[in-house]
Amino acid sequence: MTIEEAPRIVLCAGRLIYANRPSPDRTDSSARAPRNPSWRIAIDKANRASDPSVLLPLVYAAETALFLRSQELGDLPDTIEEREEIRAAINDLLMIKIHKLKWPDFTRPHLAIVN
Question: Would you place residue 64 in the very low, low, confident or very high pLDDT band (cuts 50, 70, 90)?
Answer without folding.
Answer: very high
